[in-house]
């Protein structure tokens, strides 16, 4: 087809014999609408197969290829340190650092035919010539005769002089003695059927006006996450980034942990502590672009050479004009080695359990999603605008990750909705386990900004939450860090605004604004979780309605940390209403922990009533009733269900412990009535074979479960009680009492 021919020409690949790659097209049995684009899929699958076979031929295997960190950078080998760096544009090169007084004349490097520079530095007196924690740099001369100094591309640690303002970063040789190396004690936890993800930024996780550390996060924040019944932690800003306010997305050193929060051993302590609590740990990995920094970033290796000799594309193709950052050349052999080895490094060395890939939309298309409003038309996904180099890299990446760690969780941040992104590579997909449901938070912000309560459309809300591709799993979220950045507002702040500063005390009667805000905060997050995907994500602090936006220290705010922290004392103070939102967040996670509705493929919306502002649906064997009406209570409201029997309340947002008014009775049995002819949906009630009646107060959500006949009459789940995980909070208190230098936590 014309579109496929354009892909061939734009990526400078000849139309080769496609071979028999149809065995990989299980994707087409799921979506016949992809048939017209079969040539595109055949082409990209052929590219993937050829690339993998080429790697296996020249590097023995994809597995071996991804162990580049054992070959490149600094590694100790049989009495010497071996240092390798890929820099084909360099004419001469040497290694300098504290170990040689920053004079490289005695440590010249040799270049091979592939542009790789190498030096072997013998041990001195039985010890490595370069001391652990000493500074090093790569010095090379490029085409115009200029010598430049750069941080090694594969450096495993980089630090900044804390006594100098805006000091440049230095590469650090990290090779601690055995006594100082952290040894993992706990195995990886099993992969959850449905991830309930707590998105966290270690640096801003302290309540104090400073950057928090990995160890403090492990000791004081992880128990909170566990107590709220999350099963997965997603860590932002792990890879070193010189600009703190970039939220970690302008990476300068890809193999180095962010030194603001501690050392590599400290991060290992955090991950091991998470595993001891049964928490998976995902890393926010940034392979979509790199920092534009020259002095301390990968961009410093670009001295005007061609794309084939650089990590990045040359010219406009190598620059993201909105992000002011560099774009990788995914067709380059050494770039593939670098990025695939980077993934392997974080899995092997730090025991991460998977990744959330940032900026996938930018990778998938030559236009990077800029000024592009995706409508769902398949021509938008499979044409000359598709960056097949990047698609092949992502296929290789997912292949590698799931080969090294079969139980890994890998999530794509993609706003375009490309079909096949969340299906296995073996079916012709790109291989991600989940994609982020990025349209959902946009819809909530649109409603909160522009619509009165009575203008909310139940049909539009329901459609927005269920509009996802069949068999491609999504992570739903009402808000993430994106919605909390300076200039925007969290959902709690949209709902309650300045009254959050004066109206959150339980010692005074709640104002209508606060009452509405807490009620809708619970409903918005819960319906997003229950109806929006196969997993759920919450950003640190939003579980209890953290006020304020996030504003990193910068010149414009006087380098203040006031808005770059989490005020845990708000939720810890018993007379403040923040505790109600936190308790409900804990309970809705517990509901899924025990009844596993998120992992159920059964999702049926049976009632969308615009006048009454009610949405009724089933997820798994639970029945959810959401009443968004600001005033109306419905007595004897009829709801459809699948199975006959007796239903009781499993979770109720209106209970007193969640800041409600306690209007729904939990000791009431709801018996079903058969509807119509069994097996004939059109004769049923809302296409459901049974029904029962409930009380539905305004701005509430209630979940009902089917009581098993063998169950005791007095037995019911305690999902409205969050005491099951109080032991985790006890650990916080114990850590506080044992802590030194952290006595003001939760002041």
From TrEMBL:
Keyword field contains Plastid: yes
Origin superkingdom: Eukaryota
Glycosyl hydrolase family 13 catalytic domain segment(s): 212-577
Pathway: Glycan biosynthesis; starch biosynthesis
Enzyme Commission code(s) on record: 2.4.1.18
Record GO biological process: glycogen biosynthetic process; starch biosynthetic process
Localization per Swiss-Prot or TrEMBL: Plastid, Amyloplast
Region feature (Disordered): 710-747
Organism of this sequence: Dorcoceras hygrometricum
Biased composition (Polar residues): 737-747
Swiss-Prot/TrEMBL keywords: Amyloplast, Plastid, Transferase
GO CC, alphabetical: amyloplast
Name of the featured protein: 1,4-alpha-glucan branching enzyme
One Pfam family, short name: Alpha-amylase
């Amino acid at each position: 087809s014309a579109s496929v021919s354009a892909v061939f020409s734009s990526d400078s690949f000849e139309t080769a014999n496609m071979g028999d790659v149809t065995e990989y097209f299980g994707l087409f049995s799921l979506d016949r609408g992809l048939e017209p684009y079969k040539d595109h899929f055949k082409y990209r699958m052929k590219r993937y197969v050829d690339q993998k076979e080429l790697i296996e031929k020249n590097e023995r295997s994809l597995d071996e290829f991804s162990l580049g960190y054992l070959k490149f950078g600094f590694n100790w080998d049989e009495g010497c340190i071996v240092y390798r760096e890929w820099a084909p544009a360099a004419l001469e090169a040497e290694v300098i650092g504290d170990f040689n007084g920053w004079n490289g004349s005695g440590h010249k490097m040799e270049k091979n035919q592939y542009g790789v520079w190498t030096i072997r530095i013998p041990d001195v007196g039985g010890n490595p010539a370069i001391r652990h924690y000493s500074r090093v740099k790569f010095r090379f001369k490029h085409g115009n005769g200029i010598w430049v100094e750069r941080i090694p591309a594969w450096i495993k640690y980089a630090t900044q002089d804390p006594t100098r303002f805006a000091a440049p970063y230095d590469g650090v040789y990290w090779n601690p003695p055995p006594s100082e190396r952290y040894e993992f004690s706990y195995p990886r936890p099993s992969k959850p059927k449905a991830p309930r993800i707590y998105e966290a930024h270690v640096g801003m996780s302290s309540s104090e006006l400073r950057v928090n550390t990995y160890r403090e996060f492990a000791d004081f924040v992880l128990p909170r996450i566990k107590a709220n019944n999350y099963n997965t932690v997603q860590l932002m800003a792990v890879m070193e980034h010189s600009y703190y306010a970039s939220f970690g997305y302008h990476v300068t050193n890809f193999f180095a942990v962010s030194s603001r929060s501690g050392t590599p051993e400290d991060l290992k302590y955090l991950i091991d502590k998470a595993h001891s609590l049964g928490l998976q740990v995902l890393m926010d990995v940034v392979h979509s672009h790199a920092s534009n920094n020259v002095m301390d970033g990968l961009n410093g290796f670009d001295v005007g050479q061609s794309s084939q000799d650089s990590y990045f594309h040359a010219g406009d193709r190598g620059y993201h004009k909105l992000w002011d950052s560099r774009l990788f050349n995914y067709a380059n052999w050494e770039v593939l080695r670098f990025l695939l080895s980077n993934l392997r490094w974080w899995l092997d060395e730090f025991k991460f359990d998977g990744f959330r890939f940032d900026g996938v939309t930018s990778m998938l298309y030559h236009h990077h999603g800029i000024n592009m409003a995706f409508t769902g038309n398949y021509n938008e996904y499979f044409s000359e605008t598709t960056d097949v180099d990047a698609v092949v890299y992502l296929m290789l990446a997912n292949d590698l990750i799931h080969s090294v760690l079969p139980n890994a969780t890998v999530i794509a941040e993609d706003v375009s909705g490309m079909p096949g992104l969340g299906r296995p590579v073996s079916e012709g997909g790109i291989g991600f386990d989940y994609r982020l449901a990025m349209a959902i938070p946009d819809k909530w912000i649109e409603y909160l900004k522009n619509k009165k309560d009575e203008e909310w459309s139940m049909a539009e809300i329901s459609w927005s939450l269920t509009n996802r591709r069949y068999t491609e799993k999504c992570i739903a979220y009402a808000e993430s860090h994106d919605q909390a950045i300076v200039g925007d507002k969290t959902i709690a702040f949209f709902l309650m605004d300045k009254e959050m500063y004066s109206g959150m005390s339980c010692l005074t009667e709640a104002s209508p604004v606060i009452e509405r805000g807490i009620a809708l905060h619970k409903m918005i997050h819960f319906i997003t979780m229950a109806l929006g995907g196969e997993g759920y994500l919450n950003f640190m602090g939003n579980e209890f309605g953290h006020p304020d936006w996030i504003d990193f220290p910068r010149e414009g705010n006087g380098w203040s940390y006031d808005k770059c922290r989490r005020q845990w004392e708000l939720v810890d103070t018993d007379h403040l209403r923040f505790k109600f939102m936190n308790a409900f967040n804990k309970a809705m996670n517990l509901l899924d922990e025990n009844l596993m509705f998120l992992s159920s493929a059964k999702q049926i919306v049976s009632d969308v009533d615009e006048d009454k502002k009610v949405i009724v649906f089933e997820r798994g064997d639970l029945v959810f009733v959401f009443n968004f009406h600001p005033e109306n209570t419905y007595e004897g409201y009829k709801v459809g269900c699948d199975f006959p029997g007796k239903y009781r309340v499993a979770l109720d947002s209106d209970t007193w412990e969640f800041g409600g008014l306690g209007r729904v009775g939990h000791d009431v049995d709801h018996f079903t009535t058969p509807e119509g002819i069994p097996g004939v949906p059109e004769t049923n009630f809302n296409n459901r074979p049974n029904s029962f009646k409930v009380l539905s107060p305004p701005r509430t959500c209630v979940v009902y479960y089917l009581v098993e006949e063998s169950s005791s009459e007095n037995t019911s789940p305690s999902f409205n009680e969050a005491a099951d995980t109080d032991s985790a909070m006890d650990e916080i208190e114990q850590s506080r009492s044992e802590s030194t230098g952290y006595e003001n936590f939760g002041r």
